[in-house]
Design brief:
- By secondary structure, the chain is of the alpha+beta class.
- The relative contact order is 0.10.
- α5 packs antiparallel against α6.
- The strands form three sheets. The protein has an eight-stranded mixed β-sheet, sandwiched between helices.
- β15 and β16 form a beta hairpin.
- Helices cover about 45% and strands about 15% of the residues.
- The structure holds histidyl-adenosine monophosphate (HAM).
């Protein structure tokens, strides 16, 4: 009997099903409407990029880059990288002949594929690859020759085992640093891709600020929990250009809060901070490091490590015992240079001008390296520990770091999964209209008429469910009810003969007899009414 396996979505990923998917659609549609009202345009970027792009922008030492990215080697065949992993991880034990012949087989497949790929031009013919393609197979043969000799004579064990192990090491040495193609990663965030696209497409030559939004999935290998997934979705916004006027920051934040208002995300809290720039932050970081070293013994292991790697991240700590110590640390707001201080106070004035409520949070440093000056985050209720529904900030200089012209930038990303969770938990998700009309037809003469009216209603924008098989009216109406249709359109031979339709409102069972034109007019005005 064939083995049956229950396939499941990969851990940390999930399906979004109707009717939830309609809420997602509405959420993203509302984002588009709001952003377009602020004159933003959509950018769609690839889901994978060169790994180095993320390492350079988000930062090599950040959690995202150092441990959370899904990486792979990009070339015509994923076979080579998979076998390379096997050749390093598989047991290579002299006293197990099976292990030896598997190694030899893997080596032959690897060498064959390597040669084929170089021949096809899918892989560069580097001296290292050419050498590996030549030397691997003889090493594999030598491996099993020594094993077989030992099995046959049970003699010279030490000598043969040493030679076997040396050959395994030679195989590993030959393949360790082979360039098997481009290193790529599934995007963990969108800002790096948008900057790459901005440079690659020469978008700096466009007039004014380049205002973009990007909607789609992101990938991080984090420990899954409520509000934290390995494939999650972001609604991302970026403004790139020559100006770093605080009014841009404030307008971006205004747009974000307006969007949250429109989707009914209530009880949000906006936190803002300035983390200075390359002129003032290094001295502050050093000062912080000094202070942290003095209290090192009272901090947990994570914070202790961060004193040296990234002291700012200690301010992010949620460890209860550390809170009292953190409260006594020097604050960046007292160490900003004049230009950054002025930028931050202007930002606060601009926010006040727009009537935006915020809380200054000196500990808001964010976990990505590219930020300068303004940082902000929005938290929402009902999400437990993963309560940040949006994070953002300014990243002047990032485009330049990636090889583009000097450019200022600011943006944010909303975590769609969390925002929708919060909206649903608060019960403020809209009741979206389901299928409008269920066509309950009976009798073969009624079927062509049912097809005809279904098409006309659909053309008029009404959502129609037309059963493909004949059913008794009772069963049909029961199904219409279960499907949540607003109306059943009853169409039997009598209706066909009299060229009328019976429209039954399922909520209160009220029935109307209508001619075709009246029916269309009624349902169209009803549709406009419910969707308005
Ligand atoms: P971020 O703070 O890493 O910033 O992510 C933004 C938001 O994405 C978070 O506030 C959260 O709502 C959501 N998020 C992050 N990781 C997960 C996850 N594993 N599961 C569910 N939701 C998650 C950025 O990504 C920056 N690129 C934002 C930005 C744009 N800054 C400037 N421009």
């Amino acid at each position: 009997m064939a083995e049956t396996k229950q396939f499941r979505a990969i851990k940390g990923t999930r399906d979004i099903l109707p009717p939830d998917s309609a809420v997602w659609d509405w959420f993203e549609r509302t984002a588009r409407e709001v952003f377009e009202s602020y004159n933003f345009g959509e950018i769609r970027t690839p889901i994978f990029e060169e790994t180095r792009l993320f390492a350079r922008s988000v930062g090599q030492e950040t959690d995202i880059v150092s441990k959370e990215m899904y990486r792979f080697e990009l070339h015509g065949s994923s076979l080579l990288s998979a076998i390379r992993v096997e050749l390093f991880e598989r047991e290579a034990w002299f006293h197990n002949p099976q292990a030896g012949s598997t190694l030899d087989w893997l080596i032959r497949v690897f060498a064959g594929e390597l040669r084929d790929m170089m021949q096809r031009g899918d892989l560069a013919r580097t001296p290292e690859s050419v050498e590996a393609a030549e030397k691997l197979e003889p090493l594999g043969q030598a491996l099993i020759r020594d094993q077989k000799e030992f099995e046959a004579k049970k003699d010279h064990a030490d000598l043969l085992e040493d030679r076997f192990n040396a050959n395994v090491q030679s195989v590993r040495h030959l393949i360790r640093h082979l360039d098997l193609g481009e290193q790529v990663a599934l995007r963990p965030e969108a800002t790096a891709s948008v900057c790459r696209a901005y440079i690659e497409n020469g978008m700096h030559t466009r007039p004014g600020n380049v205002k973009l939004y990007n909607i789609g999935p992101m990938f991080r290998r984090e420990r899954p929990q409520k509000g934290r997934y390995r494939q999650f979705y972001q609604v991302d916004v970026e403004v790139l250009g020559q100006s770093d006027a605080p009014g841009i920051d404030a307008e971006v934040i205004e747009m974000l809060m307006e969007f949250f208002r429109r989707v009914g995300l209530k009880k949000t809290k906006l936190h803002v901070n300035s983390i200075g720039d390359k002129n003032c932050r290094p001295a502050y970081v050093e000062l912080l490091r000094e202070k942290l070293r003095q209290v090192k013994d009272r901090l947990g292991a994570d914070s202790q490590r961060r004193i040296e790697t990234n002291p700012l991240r200690v301010l992010d700590s949620k460890v209860p015992e550390e809170q009292e110590i953190i409260a006594t640390l020097p604050r960046i707001s007292e160490h900003l240079c004049d230009a950054c201080r002025e930028h931050f106070s202007q930002l606060k004035r601009e926010l006040a001008l727009r009537g935006i409520q915020y809380e200054e949070n000196w500990r808001l440093v964010r976990g990505l390296d590219y930020y300068t000056r303004t940082t902000f985050e929005v938290t929402a209720e009902g999400l437990g520990s993963q309560n940040a529904v949006c994070g953002g900030g300014r990243y002047d200089g990032l485009v330049e770091l990636l090889g583009g012209p000097p450019t200022k930038g600011i943006g944010f990303a909303i975590g769609t999964d969390r925002a929708i969770l919060s909206i649903q938990e608060a019960g403020s998700a809209p009741k979206l209209p389901g299928s409008g009309v269920y066509v309950a037809w009976m009798g073969q003469a009624a079927y062509p008429a049912a097809i005809g009216i279904a098409r006309k209603l659909r053309e008029a924008g009404v959502s129609v469910e037309l059963p493909a098989e004949e059913m008794k009216f009772k069963k049909s109406l029961g199904l219409a009810d279960k499907l949540g249709a607003r109306y059943a359109l009853i169409l039997g031979e009598d209706e066909v003969a009299s060229k009328t339709y019976t429209l039954k409102r399922l909520a209160d069972a009220e029935q109307m007899k209508l001619r075709e034109a009246e029916l269309l007019e009624y349902l169209e005005s009803e549709r406009r009414g419910t969707r308005a």
